[in-house]
Write a structure and sequence with these properties.
mainly beta, Immunoglobulin-like, 9-stranded mixed β-sheet, 4 helices, 18 strands, globular, binds copper (II) ion
């Protein structure tokens, strides 16, 4: 699915379909407006690096940042943004992250501020993250076939975010409405009843780090199927059931939020959380942080 393109077209319609009466043009589901982005980044991901344009070295400002993420490689990729906490000793952080494909060792040093969960080769996805002033890392923690996180093979880059310039008012939205909210709660994912195309506000109300990784399934899972699939994913084994990674929201720390553009085809999905707790590589999905849903 070309989400970046469908975002601009407001619906994944072909030319012919757009000539039809727009009976399925869903009205805004909420009164919440999208924030106005202060900048936009195009991010191409491949083995094993990001190409970001415009070049972040040219200056990034704090504030909501529109991400248009393209997997131009041959493996699945993601981008997660981690803001280094003030006062962190960078050599200590580097030592904590070295050789740790789970990322668990480095989590205590950062606030995870979102991004996009992994998508397959040739796929695109769109999200919005709130960059905060300071040093921010963009990273991919998708494992290769040997279980080594891409970030440990060079798929990690640091960016300096300057203070907001004060020109953008938080009350000035894009005019687009949020169609629904997705809560990463202490009891798991809370999804809207309707999951039509549009922007979703993703909020972590728990006191732990979570991500929303969305996997499209061939059909509904049978009894125990979800648990088996989660076991396979956690072990980096090829799953027995066919699935397609369709993105989602990259990891966000407790109390943080982001926006995600979704245009999911009808079907069955599994939402999973690959994130661990600080210092413990066990992914949350093995402790039940996953959920099936259908569209
Ligand atoms: Cu990657």
């Amino acid at each position: 699915m070309a989400l970046a393109t469908s975002f601009l077209l407001v619906g994944a319609c072909t030319q012919d379909e757009r000539a039809e009466p727009a009976t399925d043009a869903a009205p805004p589901a909420t009164s919440e407006l999208m924030p106005e982005p202060v900048q936009e980044l195009e991010i191409d991901a491949t083995e094993y690096s990001f190409t970001i344009s415009p070049d972040p070295a040219g200056g990034l400002r704090a504030g909501w940042t529109l991400l248009k993420f393209h997997n131009t490689g041959d493996e699945p990729h993601q981008v997660m943004f981690a803001r280094i906490k003030d006062g962190v000793d960078m050599s200590e952080l580097a030592a904590a992250g070295a050789g740790d494909s789970s990322g668990a060792g480095a989590i205590e040093f950062v606030d995870m501020i979102g991004g996009v969960s992994y998508i397959g080769p040739g796929q695109d996805t769109t999200a919005m993250v709130d960059l905060s002033e300071g040093l921010v890392m963009a990273m991919c923690y998708v494992p290769d076939e040997h279980g080594v996180a891409h970030a440990l093979m060079g798929m990690s880059t640091s960016m300096t975010v300057a203070p907001a310039d004060g020109a953008a008012s938080p009350s000035t939205g894009t005019g687009e409405h949020v169609v629904g909210s997705i809560e990463l709660s202490e009891d798991g994912y809370l999804l809207p009843d309707e999951m039509g195309a549009g922007w979703y506000h993703v909020v972590n109300t728990d006191d732990a780090l979570h991500e929303l990784s969305l996997l499209r399934l061939d059909g509904p899972l049978d009894d125990g199927g979800a648990a088996q699939l989660v076991d396979d994913l956690a072990a980096n084994r090829p799953p027995e059931v066919a699935l397609e990674a369709v993105g989602g929201m990259g990891a966000i720390s407790a109390g943080f939020d982001g926006y995600l553009y979704l245009d999911l085809a009808d079907g069955d999905y599994l939402a999973v959380d690959f994130m661990p707790d600080p210092g413990d590589p066990r992914p949350h999905m093995l402790d039940g942080y996953f959920g099936e849903f259908s569209i």
